[in-house]
Amino acid sequence: MRLIIIGGGIAGLSAAYYAQKNHPEAKITLLEADSHWGGKLITDRVDGFVIEGGPDTFLATKTWGVELCKELGIADRLHGTNPEAKNTYVLHKNRLESLPDGLAMMIPGKVMPMLKSRLLNWAQKLRIGLDFLIPVKKGDADESLGSFVSRRMGRATYENLIEPLMSGIYAGDGDKLSLQSTFPFLRDFERKYGSLALGAMKMYRARVKSQKNRGSRSIFLTPTTGLAEMTEAIVAYLKENNADLRLNSPVSRITHHDSRYQVGLAVGATLEADSLILATPAYVTGELLASPLPELAEVLKSIPYVSTATVSLAYKLTDLPHPLDGYGYVIPRREGRRALACTWTSTKFPHRAPEGHALLRVFVGRAGQEDEIPWDDASLLEIAREELALTLGITADPLVSRVFIWEKAMPQYNLGHPEKLTQIDAALEEMPNLAFAGNGYRGIGIPDCIHSGELAVEKIFKHEEHEETQSY
Questions:
Q1: What's the predicted TM-score (pTM) here?
Q2: What is the mean pLDDT of the chain?
Q3: For a 10 Å CB count at each end of the chain, is N or C smaller?
Q4: Which domains does the chain have, with CATH numbers?
């Protein structure tokens, strides 16, 4: 059986890895349009600094990432976040205010820290208390994250606390994001406890207990010299096992004939496959399937994406007037800044900068603000330096700077997304030798993407095994 996987990000690489490992008899070809493997998992190692272009860590509680690292033999290289860096800040009225302790999945899980917080005034804090009295909404209809949190805890709690934290994950507009597709546990809190705050309190206590059992092990992990270690290890494994790996190989078209797929490359060649996994953004997948599956293609192309950028800057510690005493800060949409967050990378992961130096990373771009951003390296660097000057008082020239632009990279699970997934699943049910993987569907994190690749392989080979059984 010949399997072609299109897309060499972490989802496509994971699919190739699990296919090669569990079905070594198959002929596997992995096609990537770019000149490097890993997609947004790209690490620049320069002058002792470890600079991530995309994500810088993954969630250990979703075990697919840790398990893959174990299989690749790099689990002993995983580091957690700095346990001594306790603070995360929120920019509020042009000042950095500490994120209140005791949050559980963004929701306040402790009373006193919230009462002491300067992110809300007293009237707004009292409004949170109504969460214990407001009746549970009946029915199963989806609603936006912004509408849900505002209904339960007040609009100010959403805008000052929840929205900036959510933007750090999805770069989205919470008034459009589907609660069911992004944070379904919040609706579970409401149904089970009648209150978000009560659910958060119980979750926070359970987390504290779990942490005692786990010890100091962080729930966020990353390899010593960057997330690219994961992709490098997968590529090494695939090469050792003679998988057909092709960079700089964009696909121009896909056709389907006699139960086989014909994959046309931009260079003019055509490859044939018994089965196909597309680990490309949903809109790219839609464009490629426009000919053989036009109705499915339209659904895929309707999933919106947002462009983002990261700008990393390195300084001498002596050039920084503000102490980097935490993980960094997030910026609410209402602050009107062009940046949405700043990570103090060298505090979060001390091994990522030489002694006496600091590494910071500014995030730019979120839903609804893309037209306000000039998408070129020089302008993005200017935006990042402007943000650091305004908030942290940094005016020195950076020793090192790196800009990474991710055009249409962040899928938006907006209202209607669950219905789109239902349509996609129904169409794929009719195409057992076709599967999708990636962050466009059921999770944007690294472990989610890894798992999506594994599930895609399971779907494909379950069909192949069934076909072989039938032939007997």
A1: 0.95
A2: 94
A3: C
A4: 2-39+228-303+414-471 (3.50.50.60), 101-214 (1.10.3110.10), 305-411 (3.90.660.20)
